[in-house]
Amino acid sequence: MIKDSLLPKGLKPLSLPDFSGIEAEQLVSVLKKCEQGRGEEVLKNFEDDFKKLVQSDYCIPVSSATSGLHLALLALGIAEDDEVICPTFTFAASAFPILYQKAIPVFVDSDEDSWNISPEHLESAIKARLSAGKKPKAIIIVHSYGNPAQLNLLLNIASNYKIPIIEDAANALGSTFNQRQVGTFGSIGVFSFNRNKIISGGAGGCVVTHDSILADKMRYFAHQAKSKQDYYHHEEVGYNYGLSPVLAEIIRIQLTTLQARIKKRKAVFQEYFHKYNPETTFQKEIDNAFSNRWLTVLKFKEPKISSPEYHHVWKPLHTQPVFNRYPYFGNKESEGFFENGICLPFSK
Ligand SMILES: *Cc1c(COP(=O)(O)O)cnc(C)c1O
User: What digits encode the pLDDT tens for the residues 59-83?
Assistant: First the structure.
């Protein structure tokens, strides 16, 4: 057991939204535009600024990253009984949309350095599912707590087996690999602007892609699957997953402050690093990766005492009642993160 004195005292919120720098006139102005029926123009401005920031060809604003992940699966044609690979060490929202489609999540455990999906376990999972006659239809990877996954290896594996990658970059705005924003490497990338993310509209998200066909499909499913006819014509089930223009504008105004926000997160990480370094291991930035250090997570060398005074890291999905009947590949690395790890608040 680790010393109680090492654990943080008092449950501070992990990460509160920061709306500083947004002027009242800007909010009044976006409300006026909505009254004038100019919501589409506001959304277009958001799309343009976000595309430029992350260097993607298409951006579709959505109500949440969860709805964005659902749209990604819809656009890739994931349907009942299809298998989708997903990390087990992630927030449940990464995997719930697989169940919305009545598809089957195949959980894969992490590497001990990045804490993200392990390339070795991924390849074992693909091989095992192929020999069972079930080729996975997509691979979701997550840049957990903002830390980039091993993209070079993961992209290689995915391209060898010709399986599309969906990047859950909900935590990872501003995180890069080879100086390129994560979320723009796979077929589709998903970002969140929910309350505790690095940039927040209180809620919201967006999906990005370089593929015009996928972009059109996601836009179509996000807006009630309206066909091209000039009257209301629907051939498939649609969803109401669009982002409010008011939130889009609140998010857009903050985009220019991203680098300053990352600086603050990095400074908080450094403080924790100096305090905890000798007794613990932290998520490592892999070669050529830059993490926004959205939240600091660390692992002690032994199980911690249970305490209401700190935040747990994510409990692996393959151990959750809602998911535990699905296939799992790994050596329980994530169970070690859960038993020995804590998540430290950015908001202090
Ligand atoms: C927050 C989060 C989501 C969900 O984002 P929402 O915008 O709240 O739907 C998905 N995946 C991860 C890894 C997250 O942390």
Answer: 999 999 999 999 999 999 999 999 9
State which residues form the domain around 302: 12-344
Single-letter amino acid code for the residue at 108:
V
Give domain status of residue 5, yes or no: no
Query: Which ligand 1 atom sits nearest the alpha carbon of residue 204?
Result: 7
Residue 3 within any structural domain of the chain: no
Among 329, 324, 311, which residue's Cα sits nearest to residue 337? 311
Percent of the chain with pLDDT over 90: 91
How many domains does one find in the chain? 1
Please tell me the distance between residue 169's alpha carbon and the centre of ligand 1 in angstroms: 8
Distance CA 333, CA 114 (A): 11
Give the predicted TM-score (pTM) of the model.
0.97
CATH number, domain of 181, equals 3.40.640.10
For residue 42, give the amino acid letter.
V
- Residue 1, domain member (yes or no): no
Provide residues with CB under 6 Å of ligand 1.
64-66, 90-91, 93-94, 142, 168, 170-171, 192, 194, 205
3-state secondary structure at position 207: strand
Residue 2 included in any domain: no
> Is it the case that residue 307 has pLDDT exceeding 90?
no
Distance 192 CA to ligand 1 centre (A): 6
